[in-house]
Amino acid sequence: MSDATPSNASAAPTPDFETMTRDIAEVPAVEVIVTVAVNLMSAAAVKLGLTEEGDQYKDLDEARKLIHALAGLLDAGATEISSFHAAPLRDGLKSLQLAFREASLVPDDPGQGPGEKYTGAVYG
């Protein structure tokens, strides 16, 4: 055995919070809102079992929460991000709501599904 101490060459550098703050300050609000919406959509799709892994990550309770949060974000932010950005996000939300309704063993009443508080009842 050696008394030598291991080198810290492989240690991860500490984050530069000043640079990170400056970077986020340069991002337009529209881009932040759209990015969050896309992340919510992606997570909901995974929880609905719509990915290649299928049912491995399926969790309808989690999907409901994510879809509801996405609907709330789009409802609150639609006027801020313009219809150019909002329209495809609304289409994606509707697709997720329909997929949720299809995946549910006991479907919600019309208007009671995830996010329908904000969007109104969703029909296929």
Polypeptide structure, described:
The structure is a single chain. With 124 residues, this protein is mainly α. Helices cover 61% and strands 0% of the residues. It is built from four helices and no strands. It has helices spanning 17-25, 29-47, 60-103, 116-119. Helix 2 packs across helix 3 (60-103). It is flat. The mean pLDDT is 89.
Give a short overview.
The protein is mainly α.
Radius of gyration: 20 Å
Give the rounded overall mean pLDDT.
89
Q: Supply the helix-strand structural class.
A: mainly alpha
**3D shape:** flat
**Span between N and C termini?**
70 Å
What is the ordering of alpha helices and beta strands?
Answer: HHHH
The helix content is: 55-70%
Low-confidence stretches: none
Strand content: under 5%
Helix-strand layout with pairing:
Layout: H1 17-25, H2 29-47, H3 60-103, H4 116-119
